[in-house]
Amino acid sequence: MAKRLFLLHLGPDPVDLDAMHDGLRLGRVATPDVDPEVLDLAGIEICRTHKAAGLSRKEVEGAWAAVCRKARKARADVFASVPAFFDATSEQAALALDGLAGFKVVLVVTSGFTIQPPTAWVSLVKEDRVHVLPDNLGDEQLAAQVARIALIEEEARLDKRLAKISRRRKQVTKRLAA
C-alpha cells in the first residue's frame, strides 16, 4: 500500500484551516481533527518554547503526538499548518518527523522567494518534496495550491505503479511465449 501524504505547512505566517477546508477537499486532502490551539501547542512543544509562551511543559506535552494520531485516523492525505516549526532546529525537525513515520512528508513553505526555506527541514526531506510558495497567498489560494501539490504527488504515485505493472506484464508475456 502506498504511503499517504502529510503536507506540512511551515509558515512563517499562520493560516485558517477552516477557510481552506473546501479547497483542500478538491485534492482529497483532509485536516487532522484537532483544534487550532493544539497545532499551536504542538509547535511550542517541538520547539521547546513553552517557558517563553508562559506555559509549563506538562501543558504542551503530547500535543504533536495527538496531531499525528488524528492524522493517521483521517485515512487520507493530510494537511497541517504549524508556523512555529519554521524556526525549529535540525534536532527539533527530526523529532517532529519521527512522529510522522509511515507518511510521505511534503513541506509547503509560504516564506516567499526572498526568504530561504528553513534549512533544518529542507535537509531532512527530499528536495522534490519541498514546495516554496509566495507569501501573499490567501487561504483559498493556498488551499488550491496544496490540493494541486497533492494531485501531482498522486499522479507520480500512479505513474510509478503503472510502470511497475507494465514491466510485470512484459515478464508474464515472455513466460507465456516460452
List keywords for this structure.
5-stranded parallel sheet, 14% strand, alpha/beta, 5 strands, 7 helices, single chain, 178 residues, Rossmann fold
- Under CATH, the topology can be stated as Rossmann fold
Helix fraction by DSSP (H/I, runs of at least 4): 40-55%
CATH hierarchy, class: Alpha Beta
Number of structurally distinct domains: 1
Number of strands: 5
Q: Helix count, per DSSP? A: 7
User: What are the secondary-structure elements, in order, as H or E?
Assistant: EHEHHHEHEHEH
Structure, described:
- There is one protein chain.
- This protein has 178 residues and is an alpha/beta fold.
- It has one domain: Rossmann fold (3-Layer(aba) Sandwich), CATH 3.40.50.
- 50% of the residues lie in helices and 14% in strands.
- It has helices at residues 17-26, 36-47, 57-60, 63-73, 90-98, 119-122, 139-177; strands at 4-11, 29-30, 77-81, 103-109, 130-132.
- The protein has a 5-stranded parallel sheet with strand order 2-3-1-4-5, with helices on one face.
- Strand 4 (103-109), helix 6 (119-122) and strand 5 (130-132) form a beta-alpha-beta unit.
- The model has no long low-confidence stretch (mean pLDDT 89).
Compact summary:
This protein has 178 residues and is of the alpha/beta class. It is 50% helix and 14% strand. The chain has one domain (4-177): Rossmann fold.
Map the helices and strands.
Layout: E1 4-11, H1 17-26, E2 29-30, H2 36-47, H3 57-60, H4 63-73, E3 77-81, H5 90-98, E4 103-109, H6 119-122, E5 130-132, H7 139-177
Parallel strand pairs: 1-3, 1-4, 2-3, 4-5
